[in-house]
Each structure stands twice: as structure tokens, then as C-alpha cells.
């Protein structure tokens, strides 16, 4: 680029070809959005020196920008939801109620809490290099009611969340169920058998390493592979997606799903995966509704 500009070439106003070289060079190291910010700064500089720069009318530059945007578009990952059936398969694989492997007992407690608590991975894993009891989930944040020996439900304090930037915190209430995939009983067994330290994260491997987002995904895929489920489309966020999907399928109202998942907008709707059987039943439902309306129309006409 230096060879294209001689000492006598004025820097302002910048020509379209100069801006094309500029954005092409930036595209090697920065994202498209950051690149646009650089262009706005250049445009502002021109405005300060009374050189109006009409970027939208530079058609060649716009074509280059569109090409950069397309080339940098990340591949959208297809994330599958964790379902009740998958949790049951994991339970059958881990056998936490019979297992002597404390890591399995810990992971089972983490999996069920993530699902029934509608948790994001950042809300129960520790991804920072330094543990902070003021933000990360600890043993003291879990309370069994009335007691740990025979709990009816448990309270879990979430101190930080994506939708809670000011860290007001929120307390989840998870009731005990009579099924094998009960989050309360899984947490009870984990606490009594593994005795997590009060000075560290709630979920810790026997090696002393914390449960991170990366290790959560790794362990999840490992057990899914063992269950005969193709694991490549499952991630730590699959629990959050699965909880919303299962709740919608169970007929839980939309406003309550929004509350349970701590969504501040209606974006939760894009997490819900519609089952194939539901889609297949739609034509029949529409036909029945159409038949009902036709009968009503005929009755009105006859009166």
C-alpha cells in the first residue's frame, strides 16, 4: 500500500481505491464489525476537515465489504437439546445411585441441576482462572428444605447471570420428584458422598480441577457416545435448550418458561425445538379445525 501513495499524494480526501486497500488489509486481523468501526472513524476524520465522505455511494467499496462479511460469517452450530429420554440414558450409564465413581456422581448432579434449573453453563461452571465465591456457584449456595436427610425441595442461589448484569442474584426453587432423574436427590447424594469444599466451586473433580464449560461439554459428549448417541451436536448449552423445549412440550405456558429460564426478552422462543411428531400432527389439526369452521358456516347460512 505504501507504494501506491507517493509523498505528494494528499491523504485527505481518501480515494475509493485507498479505502478498498485499507479494509482488505484490516480484514486479515479484525472482524467485519470492527472493520466498520474503523471506517466510521475515517468518515468522522473527513467530516472534521470538511471532506464529506459518502461511503454508501462507493459501490466498489461496498461490494468488497459484502465479500468480507460473507467470508467471515461463522458457521452456525446446530445445537441439539438434552431431553428427558437422554437424561434417563445418562442415568442408566452412570448408575450414580450404585456407582463408587465420585466424578460420575458429581457430573450427574451438575447435569440434572443444569436441566431442571434451566441453567446456562456460566451459572454453574467455573471458567475463570481464579475462583471468586462472590460470583461462582458454591456449596453454601445450596439449601435443602427442610433438611438434607429428607428434602422436599432445594434452593439454589445464582449470583451472576447473563441476564443479570448488576448481579442482583436470584434464588431457584427445585422440588423433589419421585423419578430417577431427580435433581434434588442427585444433589443430596453428591453433597453427602463427595462433600464438596465450602472454599471452592460447587462442582469439582476428584483431581481437584473445577468443572468448566469445556470439561462439561467433553464429559457430556463422552457419556452420550457411550449411550450410543451421536455427540457432535451437543454442547454445554444443550441443557438450557432442552429445558425450554421440554417445558414447551409439557404445555407449560410461555410466560412461565421465560421466568424459569430468566430470559429478559422473548428470545427463549428460538431455543425451543419443535418435535417431529408435533409437526406431523399439524395437518390433521388444521383439517379438524377447518371442518369445524365449515360446519359453523353452514349452520349460520341455514338460519
Description:
- The protein has 303 residues and is mainly alpha-helical.
- It is built from ten helices and three strands; from the N terminus they run H-H-H-H-H-E-E-E-H-H-H-H-H.
- The protein has helices at 16-26, 32-48, 59-72, 84-94, 102-116, 183-194, 213-226, 238-249, 254-260, 276-302, and strands at 142-145, 153-158, 170-175.
- Helix 1 runs parallel beside helix 3 and helix 5 runs antiparallel to helix 6 (183-194).
- The radius of gyration is 27 Å and the shape is elongated.
- The N and C termini lie far apart (83 Å).
Task: Give the SSE map.
Layout: H1 16-26, H2 32-48, H3 59-72, H4 84-94, H5 102-116, E1 142-145, E2 153-158, E3 170-175, H6 183-194, H7 213-226, H8 238-249, H9 254-260, H10 276-302
Antiparallel strand pairs: 1-2, 2-3
Helix pairs in contact: 1-3, 4-5, 5-6, 5-8
Low-confidence stretches: 1-6
- The gross shape turns out to be elongated
What's the tally of helices? 10
Termini separation comes to: 83 Å
Element order: H for helix, E for strand: HHHHHEEEHHHHH
How is the largest sheet built, in terms of strand order? 1-2-3
- Radius of gyration from the CA trace? 27 Å
Q: Helix coverage percent of residues?
A: 40-55%
The averaged pLDDT comes out at 85
The main β sheet shows up as: 3 strands, antiparallel
Beta fraction: 5-15%
- The number of strands is 3
Counting helices, strands and paired strands, the structural category is mainly alpha
Amino acid at each position: 500500500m505504501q507504494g501506491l501513495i507517493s509523498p505528494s499524494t494528499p491523504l485527505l480526501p481518501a480515494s475509493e481505491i485507498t479505502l478498498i486497500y485499507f479494509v482488505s488489509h484490516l480484514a486479515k486481523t479484525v472482524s467485519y464489525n470492527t472493520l466498520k468501526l474503523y471506517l466510521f472513524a475515517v468518515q468522522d476524520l473527513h467530516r472534521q476537515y470538511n471532506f464529506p465522505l459518502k461511503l454508501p455511494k462507493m459501490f466498489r467499496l461496498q461490494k468488497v465489504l459484502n465479500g468480507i462479511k460473507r467470508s467471515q460469517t461463522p458457521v452456525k452450530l446446530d445445537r441439539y437439546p438434552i431431553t428427558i429420554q437422554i437424561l434417563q440414558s445418562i442415568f442408566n450409564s452412570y448408575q450414580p445411585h450404585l456407582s463408587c465413581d465420585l466424578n460420575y456422581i458429581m457430573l450427574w448432579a451438575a447435569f440434572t441441576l443444569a436441566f431442571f434449573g434451566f441453567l446456562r453453563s456460566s451459572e454453574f461452571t467455573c471458567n475463570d482462572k481464579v475462583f471468586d465465591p462472590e460470583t461462582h456457584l458454591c456449596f453454601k449456595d445450596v439449601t435443602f428444605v427442610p433438611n438434607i436427610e429428607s428434602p422436599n425441595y432445594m434452593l439454589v442461589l445464582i449470583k451472576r447471570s447473563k441476564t443479570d448484569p448488576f448481579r442482583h442474584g436470584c434464588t431457584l426453587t427445585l422440588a423433589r420428584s419421585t423419578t430417577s432423574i431427580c435433581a434434588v436427590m442427585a444433589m443430596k447424594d453428591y453433597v453427602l458422598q463427595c462433600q464438596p469444599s465450602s472454599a471452592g466451586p460447587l462442582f469439582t473433580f476428584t483431581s481437584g480441577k473445577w468443572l468448566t464449560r469445556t470439561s462439561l461439554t467433553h464429559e457430556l459428549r463422552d457419556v452420550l457416545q457411550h449411550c450410543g448417541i451421536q455427540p457432535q451436536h451437543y454442547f454445554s448449552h444443550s441443557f438450557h435448550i432442552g429445558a425450554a423445549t421440554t417445558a414447551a412440550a409439557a404445555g407449560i405456558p410461555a410466560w412461565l418458561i421465560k421466568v424459569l429460564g430468566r430470559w429478559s426478552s422473548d428470545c427463549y422462543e428460538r431455543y425451543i425445538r419443535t418435535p417431529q411428531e408435533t409437526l406431523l400432527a399439524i395437518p390433521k389439526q388444521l383439517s379438524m379445525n377447518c371442518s369445524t369452521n365449515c360446519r359453523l358456516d353452514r349452520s349460520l347460512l341455514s338460519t
